[in-house]
């Protein structure tokens, strides 16, 4: 039996699916309805996939590695399928998001572009609404932070100063702030009216300054680095675009970009290191990284992100295939002696699925990006970003994190025209 939809209805379904990703970030997680909501998303996506299966040929390589990743997952989880299924429910929807967005970039780029920029006001309204919510939470009223899906209570109040992004949502706040910074830079460049441009620029400077100040209060200092990383990657995609550019022109443009980026980093670092507040932030981040590298399995708190990676890579028996994706849940506190086990995806994926599992996920991301923009450089950059974000937070096992990255990926790919990269 074959399902067929008219183009108009098909576009509507795809817009609904993309809008569902936006609504997930802007309310569903806060309402603690992500699990049920993701099932509805998958059901609609299945219908869309069946009706437009030929369109997925444009991301054939990425889709192949998507299937291989799923096969490996169940191969690794075969010894305990009940735990494996718990992990799969959090893991599978996120992988599908990357495949779906890759399909849209490959088949519905113009439609997606119009729809995405029409939603820009919605992104900004939600961004602004979070300001009073953050102030209320900072004042000690943490009811707005929502509730944990498993009823867990976090005694660390800083983790709950996250606006309306849901319980323990400070990493999400950092990701959303970084995305909004880039989105508004893009919008700023499109505004032709001088007065509107000035007003919009001032608004963004004020809001960004507030968000950076909040990040010093909720122990989310990585937000500073995320913003710099997102802006750098966005500008790289911007530099690389241009249908008329030759290979030599692109190489010259990228060389200039790299020189400018390195010079900017050196200047900004030397300025920030002399400011007491930012000096403390940079020192804190470096301390956590070095603690994780030095202490390994003995690392505690945020340093466990790196410590757990060092621990599993030093295991000569399990570093390649892991201990099995059905042996522990993604967020099983105390697993392998790590109290905060599951606070980031990279360490969990390495421990349970090994280097092979992580490599398969990264290959999927690489080839989806390659299928979309035909550039080894930009695909590699996206994979590096993916790896960094997996080290920082629950990128794949947290549906909202995946959605925010999908928005950023959409914006970057929209910078490249057909045949551009």
Question: In brief, what are we looking at here?
Answer:
This protein is mainly alpha-helical and 421 residues long.
SSE arrangement:
Layout (H helix, E strand, L loop, with lengths): L6 H22 L5 H18 L8 H17 L4 H27 L1 H10 L1 H19 L31 H21 L3 H24 L4 H19 L6 H26 L3 H20 L8 H10 L31 H29 L2 H17 L6 H16 L7
Helix pairs in contact: 1-2, 1-15, 2-4, 3-4, 3-13, 4-13, 4-15, 6-7, 6-8, 7-8, 7-9, 7-15, 9-10, 9-14, 9-15, 11-12, 12-13, 13-14
Features:
421 residues, mainly alpha
Q: What is the helix fraction of residues, given as a range?
A: over 70%
The total of helices stands at 15
Cα gyration radius (Å): 21 Å
β-sheet strand percentage: under 5%
Main sheet specs: none
In round numbers, the mean pLDDT is 84
Q: Kindly state the number of beta strands.
A: 0
**In sequence order, what are the helices and strands, one letter per element?**
HHHHHHHHHHHHHHH
Query: Which structural class is indicated by helix and strand composition?
Result: mainly alpha
Distance between the termini: 38 Å
The coarse silhouette is globular
Low-confidence stretches: 1-7, 292-298
Walkthrough of the structure:
- The protein is mostly helical and 421 residues long.
- Helix content is 70%, strand content 0%.
- The chain is built from 15 helices and no strands.
- The chain has helices at 7-28, 34-51, 60-76, 81-107, 109-118, 120-138, 170-190, 194-217, 222-240, 247-272, 276-295, 304-313, 345-373, 376-392, 399-414.
- Helix 7 (170-190) runs parallel beside helix 9 (222-240).
- The protein starts with 6 loop residues before the first helix and ends in a 7-residue tail after the last helix.
- The model is unreliable at 1-7 and 292-298 (pLDDT under 50).
């Amino acid at each position: 039996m074959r399902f067929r939809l008219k183009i108009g209805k098909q576009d509507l379904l795809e817009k609904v699916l993309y809008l569902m990703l936006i609504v997930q970030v802007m309310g569903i997680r806060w309402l603690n309805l992500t699990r049920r909501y993701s099932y509805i998303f998958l059901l609609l996506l299945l219908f869309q996939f069946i009706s437009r299966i030929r369109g997925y040929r444009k991301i054939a390589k990425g889709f192949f590695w998507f299937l291989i990743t799923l096969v490996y997952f169940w191969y690794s989880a075969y010894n305990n399928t009940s735990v494996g299924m718990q992990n799969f429910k959090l893991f599978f929807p996120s992988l599908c998001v990357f495949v779906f967005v890759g399909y849209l970039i490959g088949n519905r780029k113009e439609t997606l572009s119009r729809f995405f920029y029409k939603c820009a006001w919605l992104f900004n309204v939600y961004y602004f609404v979070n300001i009073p919510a953050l102030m209320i939470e900072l004042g000690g009223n943490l009811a707005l932070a929502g509730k944990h899906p498993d009823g867990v209570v976090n005694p660390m109040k800083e983790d709950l100063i996250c606006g309306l992004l849901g319980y323990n949502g400070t990493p999400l706040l950092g990701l959303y702030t970084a995305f909004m910074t880039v989105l508004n830079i893009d919008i700023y460049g499109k505004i032709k009216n001088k007065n509107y441009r000035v007003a919009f620029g001032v608004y963004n400077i004020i809001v960004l300054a507030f968000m950076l100040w909040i990040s010093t209060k909720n122990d989310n200092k990585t937000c500073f680095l995320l913003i710099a990383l997102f802006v750098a990657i966005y500008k790289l995609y911007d530099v690389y675009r241009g249908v008329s550019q030759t290979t030599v022109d692109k190489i010259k443009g990228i060389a200039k970009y790299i020189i400018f980026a390195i010079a900017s980093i050196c200047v900004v670092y030397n300025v920030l290191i002399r400011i007491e507040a930012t000096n403390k932030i940079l020192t804190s981040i470096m301390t956590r990284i070095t603690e994780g590298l030095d202490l390994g399995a003995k690392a505690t708190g945020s340093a466990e992100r790196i410590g757990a990676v060092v621990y599993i890579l030093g295991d000569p028996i399990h570093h390649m295939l892991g201990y099995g994706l059905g042996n522990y849940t993604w967020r099983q506190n105390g697993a392998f002696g790590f109290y905060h086990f599951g606070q980031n995806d990279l360490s969990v994926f390495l421990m349970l699925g090994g280097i092979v599992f992580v490599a398969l996920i990264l290959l999927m991301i690489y080839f989806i990006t390659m299928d979309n923009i035909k550039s080894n450089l930009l695909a590699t950059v996206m994979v590096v970003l993916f790896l960094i974000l997996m080290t920082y937070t629950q990128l794949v096992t947290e549906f909202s994190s995946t959605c925010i990255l999908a928005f950023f990926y959409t914006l970057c790919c929209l910078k490249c025209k057909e045949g551009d990269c």
